[in-house]
Amino acid sequence: MVNYCAIIGCNRTGGKDKVSFFRLPAVITNQGEKTQELSEKRRRLWISRISRSDLQPASYPFIRVCSDHFVNGKPSPLYPEGATDWTPTLNLGHPKCNTEATPTPDRENRLKGRQQKRKTVEAAQSLISLFNDIQDNTETDSKLESDEPEFDCKTCFFEEEIVSVCGTKTTRASLVRLI
To answer: CA angle, corner 139, sides to 130 and 177, nearest 5?
Structure first.
């Protein structure tokens, strides 16, 4: 059987064109309410994007959309919601959908990069605050229990060896490894 794209104005067929065809997403009923609601929402959006007046629920199993209507050439999975290819977005044959800014895979990559960078920055900030807290506690304890001359932070950091109040010897190299 030859596949035809359901998008108005798209003449792609499975026999002569080298494109992939994808079915209308099914409603997933056996994985919880949230998944069912999300898959129903996705299916409604697909039908809305196809925007054909002759579509009936009986014809849903036979609906196909070709890869020309997806940014990456195929639909994305159900999760995460709102991914670039969650629904067909390109060359829909009607002006109903706002396509001012065409979504690109680079946008998703930038989003993932920002999220990773945010996690890295948060981890670095927590390490710095932990280091500062330890340093403040060490300075306070040494002021209370020691009659030795005080060193400022820079002097202590660049000394080859720092001796804390409890007598543990910490080298500059081990501190650098902690940071």
So the answer is: 45
Of 42, 50, 47, 55, nearest to 93 (Cα)? 50
pLDDT in tens, 53-84: 788 888 888 888 888 888 888 888 888 777 77
* Nearest by Cα to 135 from 146, 114, 151, 111: 151
Which pTM value belongs to this model? 0.50
Contact 76, 84 (CB under 8 A): yes
Residue 173, Cβ neighbours under 10 Å: how many? 9
What does the pLDDT read at residue 117?
92
Amino acid at 167: G
Is the Cα dihedral 56, 58, 60, 63 positive or negative? negative
Dihedral-angle region of residue 32 (phi above 0 means left; psi in -120 to 50 means alpha; beta otherwise): left
Closest CA to 138 of 172, 175, 164, 159: 164
Tokens 């792609």 identify what position? 12
